[in-house]
From TrEMBL:
InterPro entries: Ald1_epimerase_CS, Aldose_1-epimerase, Aldose_1/G6P_1-epimerase, Gal_mutarotase_sf_dom, Galactose_mutarotase-like, GH-type_carb-bd. Beta-D-galactose binds at residues 179-181, 252. This is Aldose 1-epimerase. The lineage of its organism: Bacteria, Bacillati, Bacillota, Bacilli, Bacillales. GO terms for molecular function: aldose 1-epimerase activity; carbohydrate binding. It catalyses: alpha-D-glucose = beta-D-glucose. GO terms for biological process: galactose catabolic process via UDP-galactose, Leloir pathway; glucose metabolic process. It comes from Weizmannia acidilactici.
Length: 346
């Protein structure tokens, strides 16, 4: 196993390094100091050919100018916050309106767009990188100085472990995730409509016209949202269910997990690749790039198209700060924010 560090680019006179993590079983993962971005995941197919299974760019410029959060850590709060404001202990905090009237993925310069400090990790049976960042009190409108640690650890058991830790000096809100876009075909040979997804979720959250949770849970039974026994992504792209149509004919929804002992499984039969996701988070936002065909940039020489990737964003429930019925995302001084997600490749 090894960790290789190389210069990836420069931003404002600051060098940005990439770390390539390699295990002893033909898997490698490349991560960046900019945004804690997962830049590449090289995984063999059924005949042993290793190809990249995540969307991204080969240059820093692509991430700075164009990337829709490709592979990045999202924070302080993943998803949308209604009205770009929230209240804590009677005080209202105003955030940036960076998606119409709402606040999205941490604001104008969220965790996806900052430079993180990095320390390589080499231990018995695993290699990785520990990233740290201190978000100052008031950054993007959020209260509290927040010290954040994100660790990526690649093991010889074909696992990529993602762990998140944070402490604050003032009461604040926090809900982090990684925004990797997966495509198991390898090197973007096909879109993901033929991928099969299995997920232990009995309920999906209803969204309003601004893609915010209404607070209502929808039973997935008999709909394109029922992944409990596995189904192809394509079902949601052709469904006439109002919630599929609302988000551009596909998925952009929080699924509430009902059994944390059962993994989420994404399969591509043609390549033979399988991705299992285990998490301690209450929900997974499934996003299927429903309107990516409108984008103008190129992804490693390919023009974007609808359904080119699928995001499986393990996190707290979006807009939880406005829904007391959802698990709280409030973090207090003296507490530690902890979240863990594991990606298992086969």
């Amino acid at each position: 196993m090894e960790v290789k560090k190389e210069l990836f680019g420069e931003l404002g006179g600051h060098p940005i390094y990439a770390y390539e993590l390699k295990n002893d079983r033909s898997i490698s993962v490349t991560v960046l100091e900019y945004g804690c971005i997962i830049n590449k995941i090289m995984v063999p197919d059924r005949i042993g050919k290793a190809e990249n299974i995540v969307l991204g760019f080969d240059s820093l410029d692509g991430y700075v100018k164009d990337a829709p959060y490709f592979g990045a850590i999202i924070g302080r709060v993943a998803g949308r916050i209604a009205g770009s404001s929230f209240e804590l202990d009677g005080k209202t905090y105003k955030l940036a309106n960076n998606e119409n009237r709402n606040h999205l993925h941490g604001g104008l310069k969220g965790f996806n767009a900052v430079i993180w400090n990095s320390t390589p990790i080499e231990e018995d049976g695993a290699v990785g990188v520990e990233f740290t960042y201190t978000s100052p009190d008031g950054e993007e409108g959020y209260p509290g100085k927040l010290d954040v640690t994100v660790m990526y650890l690649l093991t010889n058991e074909q696992e990529l472990k993602l762990s998140y830790r944070a402490v604050t000096d003032k009461k604040t809100i926090l809900n982090m995730t990684n925004h990797a876009y997966f495509n198991l075909s390898g090197d973007l040979k096909r879109d993901v409509r033929g991928h099969e997804l299995s997920m232990p979720s009995d309920y999906v959250l209803e969204l309003d016209q601004e893609t915010l949770p209404t607070g209502k849970k929808l039973d997935v039974t008999g709909t394109a949202f029922d992944f409990r026994n596995g189904r192809k992504i394509e079902g949601g792209t052709v469904s006439n269910h109002p919630q599929n149509v609302l988000v551009g004919n596909g998925f952009d929804h929080p699924f509430l997990l009902s059994n944390h002992k059962k993994p989420i499984v994404l399969k591509d039969d043609e390549s033979g690749r399988v991705l299992k996701v285990e998490t301690d988070q209450p929900c997974v936002v499934v996003y299927t790039c429903n309107t990516m065909g409108n984008d103008e940039y190129e992804i490693r020489g390919r023009k974007p198209c609808d359904y080119l990737g699928i995001c499986l964003e393990a996190q707290g429930v979006p807009d939880a700060v406005h829904h007391p019925e959802f698990p709280s995302i409030v973090l207090k001084p003296g507490e530690e924010y902890r979240a863990n997600t594991k990606l298992i490749f086969s």
